[in-house]
Target: F-box domain-containing protein
Amino acid sequence: MPPPPVLMEELVEEILLRVPPTEPATLVRAALVCRPWRSLVSGAGFRRQYREFRRRAPPMLGVLCNNYGNRRTHFGSYLSRFVPTSSFRASVCGGYRTLEARHGRVLLRRRMMGNSKPCDLIVWDPVMDERWQLTKEEGPVWFHWNAAVLCARAGACDHLDCGGGPFIVVTLGIHNRNSTMSLCIYSSEDGSWTKPTYVAWADEYGNVDEEPTALVGNTLYFRIKNGTRVLGYDLTTRETYVVQLPPKDEDSTTTLITVEGGGLGVAILHLDETTKLSLWSMEASPNGDMGWIKFRAIELEKLLSVDARSINYHMVGFAHCIGVFIVETDDGLFSFHRRFHRVRKVCEAEAEECNDRGICSVVPYMSFCTPGFA
Model:
């Protein structure tokens, strides 16, 4: 029997470009077929084409779950675990809490009691499996603070293939000596921190919430004062301003989101008989004033087919750009799209990720993943 005909390289490339981005393991198996396929899949040209072929946001490869350490081994600390939603797998070092993920990078914070410094941060690229320990030079000592990581190329990058490139880390914190709220920025290109920039007195805006930030255009938003306000920082002009968030009950949870039009939004999870998730967007009124408008309400009990009392109302995660929410229930971790309401169980309640003293927060991780070989 004659050997089967060899596929033309152009045809192989067209086939592999159509592999779903949530199945990077398929590309790995293709690369192991022969040397020509391996060279094709691991090449920079294919990697760029693979991302541009879809011309949309990267897929969600998994979620990072922050668990309280168990009483025997990690009491008083956090365990951050990666729960896959694709064929991609990753391992997070213990003792760190995941603050957020953006542009293919994850920001990890060493969990310590009391005052701490921004040098207790690590930037991690799960796809490249590279970590950057932020410089340990002297910096401000803060009590309440939060941080965000993002690509340093700003408007010059489409963020489809910027992994391994320069990044910045923006921190907002309250100084433990003079009770002032300040901003401080780390640049991977310079390998150093800027001097703290005064924002306001802490008494004016309260504490800085340790919750994921939202990036809308060139403005980075931090949640402050227990989810009642948001501080916007313009990365171009370096100006800051504070906006009052929609009213909420004492037992409700506020999560910063981005709306479909690209603006700032808020999701508020209300704990009542039906456990509603109300979605708000910031829009201009006829006279030009900015205000909040509630545009949707999702009844989670009906959507997830679970008892409302089983929903963890302290924890709501959101994947920006693709509009996917993550919620925890007694039955496990669920994800659903804000508009299409496609529901998926991410992990069972009995799984180790969901069962080690419970999940306190989740951070979705989005990136393209194509194999690279030395």
Confidence is low (pLDDT under 50) at residues 71-76. Helices lie at 9-16, 24-31, 35-42, 44-54, 202-205, 300-304, 352-355.
